[in-house]
Specification:
The chain is mainly alpha-helical. The chain has 17 helices and 2 strands. A two-stranded antiparallel ribbon has the order 1-2. The longest helix is centred in the middle third of the chain and has 34 residues. The protein is globular.
Length: 475
């Protein structure tokens, strides 16, 4: 049922028809119109990516000696970026799956963007493992000769499984919208893209059998993806937590990494939403309500992170076992103290404060909190990796580490690749989940109609046969 209702009564289908048409036009707009600003942005990202590629060629030619990593601090910026990007990949599959499972009515405009972030972040994060290797051509030896007792082997399997499941979870709900692209862009795109949409739509026509199969497939993927997503960052934490090194030897790392991953994932989703909303004028569909609800999630996970950090540092600090004093001193009083203080207050306390007050719980306030969270979570990944390796295992002076220009250049290239992939995806795929948004709108309108009918006495709630069907097009 696709009807509308106002306070004054029920009216015809025209408003819903116009809304649906406007939504489709807004979704198609990025594909049909390429502005000079878009071209300049892509050119800039390509230049940054090329510079990062040049820096990596220097590392390929001369070895890891061009980085600041040495025998005592053998992991640095690259592994920090790996953990960070794997973390923000939780923006899509986990957040989207939880919102679907809880039947959150406001989820439809944000789920597709979140799922794209997942796929791109996973590819970006996994690439930093290859970049960190002195001989990346030997990566296949992990599969051929890997030891199943090693957490690194577990991590390879978990990330590969998660990437496969995430791509399926991204693609499956997109099929009806790809069919819409196929039907709407027949004479507006070139033969290659026309063939792509034809093939990717899988002959979707919207029949009842297809709808049931799609709904069932999404439900299965939704149930499967949640434990996979949780396991991935738990296994990433075990790479550190399964060692006897001071600062890493803790059982709380699994919880800390999973909560931090969801935390930074929500923040990244907010930032991407804000940019696409502003650039493509999607204010009608991505409203202040969506930012406010995601802001609630940011505030809640910031509070959880505060609790987990207090638990971790109080437990270790109270006992202060051998080696812990050095680890604490470098975080609280030493050269990493300014990063640690920013992480605690800028990334955890300030977002909670911003979400507590209505005056700051706006689009600008939520985006500000999200930027602080992402920067702080990257800083946290960095000092977890580096400070743990700085703790002396023997009576020698602790090693120092600061990334070289090669590492900073590759970092810039990594972020450029992430931004470029999202930028190009906007020109090829539907970034708004059109069919889900239509279904959500029809459900809301159906409920409005029901309330209006009950209010005016047209429908008796004791007679279920008189109730109109408020379900949407895929029910």
């Amino acid at each position: 049922m696709a009807v509308g209702a106002t306070r004054g009564g029920i009216h015809d289908m025209e408003p819903m028809s116009r809304w649906r048409e406007r939504l489709q036009q807004k979704t198609l707009q990025p594909l049909l119109r390429t502005t000079p600003l878009y071209k300049a942005w892509v050119a800039f990202l390509l230049m940054v990516l090329a510079w990062g590629g040049y820096a990596y060629t220097q590392q390929w030619r001369h070895g890891l000696v061009v980085t600041a990593m040495r025998d005592r601090i053998s992991w640095g910026l690259y592994i920090s970026l790996f953990v960070f990007f794997i973390g923000i990949s939780h923006a899509g599959t986990l957040i989207s799956a939880i919102l679907r499972a809880s039947h959150a009515r406001w989820r439809a405009p944000v789920t597709r963007m979140a799922e794209f972030i997942t796929a791109v972040a996973l590819v970006t994060g996994a690439s930093f493992v290859l970049i960190d290797m002195g001989r990346p051509d030997r990566i296949f030896n992990v599969y051929l000769y890997g030891r199943w007792q090693s957490p690194i082997m577990w991590d390879v399997i978990a990330v590969t499984t998660y990437l496969t499941a995430s791509v399926l979870y991204l693609y499956t709900p997109m099929i009806p919208d790809l069919a819409m692209f196929r039907d709407s862009l027949t004479d507006k795109v070139g033969p290659i893209r026309r063939w792509f949409y034809e093939a990717a739509a899988l002959n979707w026509v919207g029949g009842s059998g297809q709808k049931k199969a799609l709904t069932r497939g999404i439900a299965v993927l939704m149930v499967v993806i949640i434990p996979i997503a949780v396991s991935v960052h738990t296994v990433v934490s075990w790479i550190f937590g399964m060692t006897l090194r001071v600062g890493w030897n803790t059982s709380i790392f699994g919880v800390l990494f999973v909560v931090g991953a969801i935390f930074s994932g929500v923040a990244t989703l907010v930032i991407v939403m804000a940019i696409l909303r502003r650039v493509y004028h999607w204010e009608e569909y991505i409203t202040e309500k969506h930012f406010r609800y995601l802001g609630y999630l940011l505030g809640a996970f910031a509070a959880i992170m505060i609790y987990v950090n207090i638990t971790e540092y109080m437990t270790a600090g109270f006992k202060l076992e051998e080696g812990e004093e050095f680890a604490f001193r470098q975080l609280f009083l030493g050269k990493f103290s300014y990063l640690f203080i920013f992480y605690l207050f800028g990334g955890l306390v300030v977002p909670v404060i911003l979400m507590l007050y209505r005056r700051t719980r706006t689009v600008a306030g939520v985006v500000t909190a999200a930027v602080l969270v992402d920067v702080a979570m990257f800083v946290e990944r960095y000092f977890i990796v580096v400070t743990g390796l700085r703790v002396p295992l023997m009576p020698y002076e602790p090693a120092d580490y600061f990334p070289s220009w090669v590492e900073w250049s590759v970092l810039a290239g990594g972020f450029a690749f992430f931004a470029l992939a999202i930028t190009l995806a906007v020109k090829l795929f539907p970034m708004l989940a059109v069919w889900e948004m239509i279904e959500e709108k029809e459900q809301a309108l159906g409920e409005d109609v029901m309330r209006e009918l009950v209010r005016t006495g047209v429908v008796d709630l004791e007679n279920p046969a008189a109730l109109p069907n408020p379900r949407g097009s895929l029910s």
